[in-house]
Amino acid sequence: MDSRDPALQSFVDAALAAYAEVVPGPEARASLDRITAALGTPAPRRERPGRRLPVCEHLDAALAVAVPRPALRHLIESFRAVEPDLEWVRRASFDASASANFTEGHANAMILGPAGLENRADVWFGVSLLAPRVRYTDHSHAPEETYLVLSEGEFRQGDGAWFAPGIGGSFYNTPFVTHAMRSGAHPLFAFWALWPER
Ligand SMILES: [Fe+2]
């Protein structure tokens, strides 16, 4: 397979361009360089229909956010074009750190990665949506991860203080660091790009 659906290719281009503007340090730079190189080779598209969850009623509000840079507007527009084909899912495991409304109040979608719209193992690139006033469960994973945040909302690494990257902000999670996110009065909407250890 040597070409990608034009809408998905536009999304990939827009996402990588938006990330490139705000790379949060050399570890993230190296990770994103590897991800960018890997995504240069398309993988087969998953042949299941897209599926939304009830929390996706907050998606329009999340995507209507005023963004500070043209690359972010382009990213949102290209995301809109592929979103109907995404399969939104809930995280299967969570602990007492999650708010009581966590299950109904969040959804994740893998865009390029395992079981993603583009089904591949070498990259995990997707998006998370939280309804207002939801605290996502503490979690960790082997792959390093770089977030690109498109909304208000706060994040935490380890036992550190909660911080707000702001709309268009980015930060990097080292392998296995415990992390979490929480929304305030508005939905939280953020992309994540993970490079699995191999
Ligand atoms: Fe994560």
From TrEMBL:
<protein>
    <submittedName>
        <fullName>Transcriptional regulator</fullName>
    </submittedName>
</protein>
<dbReference type="GO" id="GO:0047869">
    <property type="term" value="F:dimethylpropiothetin dethiomethylase activity"/>
</dbReference>
<dbReference type="InterPro" id="IPR031723">
    <property type="entry name" value="DMSP_lyase"/>
</dbReference>
<dbReference type="InterPro" id="IPR014710">
    <property type="entry name" value="RmlC-like_jellyroll"/>
</dbReference>
<dbReference type="Pfam" id="PF16867">
    <property type="entry name" value="DMSP_lyase"/>
</dbReference>
<dbReference type="InterPro" id="IPR011051">
    <property type="entry name" value="RmlC_Cupin_sf"/>
</dbReference>
